[in-house]
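S.,

Sequence below, as promised.
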Amino acid sequence: MNLKGFITEKFQLTLKYHKTLNPKLWTLGATLQVGIRELLLTQALEFCTFSGISQDRIVDIVMTGGNTNYNYTKFSDIDVHILVDRMDASKDFLFDRKRQWSDMKKDFTIEHYPVEFYIQNDHEHIPEGQGVFSLSSNRWKVLPTHLKTVDILSDPKVLLKIEQYTHYIKTHLLRVGTREEITTFKERLHNMRQAGLERAGEFSFENVLYKELRNRQLDQRLNDRLQQIEPL
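The prediction came back faster than expected:
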């Protein structure tokens, strides 16, 4: 069966794979463009203070995600992880502070990319298959590896499945979905992504699906829909 015939002609993934790192952020020698490291470090330390994290707890401040790899897009964030030796605050508290910070700094971007800060224990796993750049020491901890092929981004079965998810969100969840349906779907999507990252890394189907739905702003539209539904 030719699955391509079942995929809407205009449906294409927003996700891309490039030959070089993002030239807006990196030189050809894979070093950060002038001024970016200092700006990210300053903001990271301010975020720690805002979140009640003492600077003497910081083990490292690293940049990771699509913008330290070859799969960045115009929708990518700049992901900065602050690694600490011990987490005294609860994850719920830190999530609330992160959300408040994002609201306060919603206009802060670097080369038009939003910056997302995360605080995590130093021993927590960072997904494999992507570069990790230490802003603290200004060096790569894990160099990104350029793959010769990334078959998942052109696999018609993957495109078909993602289109089906997109169709379900647009035609059901966003129109008539209940609070329970939307919440369950979002939790399932999050759990799928975590499992996919642990199993197969950045290019697991689950992570590709999550990023594609995020890039299409469908996760935000689901959040907006939840705000409109009266709580039980």
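The longest strand covers residues 113-121.

Coffee later?
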